[in-house]
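Researcher: Please translate sequence to C-alpha cells.
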Amino acid sequence: MAVDFDALVLAPLAEIFGEPVPARLVPGDGPPVEFTAIFVENAQESKFQDGIETITLRTWVGCRRTAFARDPAQDEIVEVRSRSYTIAEVHADTMGHLKLYLHGPH
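Model: Translation complete:
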C-alpha cells in the first residue's frame, strides 16, 4: 500500500506554514494560478567545495506540485506580497514538493 505523502504531510504543512500566493505563469499559456506557498526571503545557504565554504542568500517559494497542471518553468513569473519575481530554478523532490528559486523582486 502506497502512502499519499502529499495528502498526509505536504498539504497540512502548507496550510499551517504557508500563505496564499498568486502565481502567473509566463509566457501566458494559461490563467494565473492561485496556490499556497512558503515564502523565504534571503535564506542563507552554504555549500562546501574543495574545503571552501560558499554562503549565498537566496529567495525561494516552496509549494506542492499538485497545485499546478504542469511544473512552473524557468523565467516564468511568481507574485508574492504584491511583488513580482522571475523563477531562476525549479527543484522538485520525489515527495511532491517544488522549490522555486527566485530572482527579484522586479
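Researcher: Any highlights?
Model: Residues 53 and 80 are 31 Å apart (CA to CA).
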